[in-house]
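Narrative of activities, Objective 1.

The group set out to show that a structural description can be obtained from nothing but a protein's sequence at a throughput compatible with the screening campaign. Below is one input-output pair from the validation batch, recorded exactly as produced.
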Amino acid sequence: MNLLKNKERAQVLPIMALLLVAFLGLLGLAIDGGRLFIARTELSRALDSAALAGIVELPDVNAAEGKAIAYLADNLPDATASFPATAEDYQLRVQGTRTVDMIFMDAFGFGTVDISAAATAGFGVPIDITIVLDDTGTMKSGCNSAQTNSNCPIKQAKDASNAFVDDLLGTNPTGILQIGVLRFRGCYGDQRYNPVSGEDPDRGCVLFSEFQDLTTNKTALHAAINNAYGKGGFPGTNICAGLDEGWNLVTGLDSRPNSAKVIIVLSDGDNRYSDGAQSDSRGNPVPNVYPLPQNGGTGDCMEPNPSQNGSNYGSDYDDRVDGLDDLTYAKALEIMAADIEIYVAGYKVSGSDSGALCDESTVTNIGGGYRRQRFSNPTDSRDRNMNKCIASSTPGTNDHYFEAPAPEDIPAAFNAIASSIAFRLIE
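Output recorded for this entry:
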C-alpha cells in the first residue's frame, strides 16, 4: 500500500513541476506583455510629439526630420526614428523603434523584443480658410494717424494675418490650402451707406468688392489684408454679419467639395450700435443693407428694432444689442452644424481669463449689451463668454479660442491658430 502511494507521488511531482513551469511562463508572459504594452504606448506618444515638433520645419525636409529625431531623443532616449516616406503635401511621417528587455521571458530565450509604431502630422485633407477681421473703431484705438505704431490693434491684426498667410501658404506647394479674407463692421453693401452728417464716408459699411475670395495667391491676400484700416464708426459692430459672410466665402464658388472648412474671427465679442444710431432712420445695421433683402425681409443678422438711445446707452439700447448677441450665437451654431470649424482670437477682453468654458445655460450669459458690459460689468466677462461660445471648441475645452489681451498679443493668437490648423496628427 505504501509502495503504491509512493508511486503516485512520484507521478504527481513531474506533473506539478510542468504545471509550475507553465504557470511561471504564463505569469512571465503577462508581466512582460504588460511591459511591452506600456513601452509601445510611451513610444506612440513620443512619436506623436516628435511628428508635431518636426512638421513646423517643412518644407525643409532635413530640418523637419532633424527636429523630430532630436525631440524623440529628448523624450525617449532609447528609441530610434526613421522616415519611411519623403515628406509631401505638408505631411511628416515618423517611424519609431524601441528595444525592450524581457525579465521573465529571458529564461525562455526571449532576452529582448523590438517594438515599433508610427505617427503622421500635417494636413490630412485640403483645407479652405476664411479670415474675418474686425475693422471697427475699436481697432484704431491707440493708433497714430498712419496706424503703424506697435500698440495699434489694426496694425498688429494685419501683421498677424500676413504672417498667417506666409506661414501656411509658404509650405503649400501643392495647393492643399486656400485662404480668403474679409472684414466686418456693422453692415455690408455695394456702397458705404453712411448717413451721419459730417462723418468720414469711409467709416460706413464694408464693401462687397473688398472681399478676397479663396486663393493661393499670397500677393492678392496681402493686398486685401493691408486694405483694412480700422475706421469703423457709424455701422457699429455686427459679429453675426461677419460670421455669415465668412460662411458664404468659405463655401463659395472657389471652395472645394472635399475640403475641410475653417473660419477665423478676430473679435472683442462686443456687438454694438453706433453712437449716432438714435432714430428709426439710423438703425444699425443700416436697414436693408445686410444681408440683401429677400422677399422684403431684413436678413437673419439684423436686429429688427432700431436703437432709440444710442448716446445714453439706455435699456432699449441694451435690448437691441442683446438681440444682436442672440443672432450671433445662433449663426455660429448654424455654421458649426454645417461642419465648419470656427476659431476665435478674442482681442482686448479686459480682466484675466479664468479658463472657464462657454456658458450656454442661459442666453443672458452670452454677450449682454454694451452699457451693462462697460459700466456694470467691467471685466467684460460677457464678451469673453460670447467669444468662447461662438468658437467650435472640443467639448470640455477652449481649444478653438485664443485670447489677445493687448494689440501686441494678436500675432501670438494667430500663430497658435495656425499651429492648431496645420500641425495636427492625422495618424
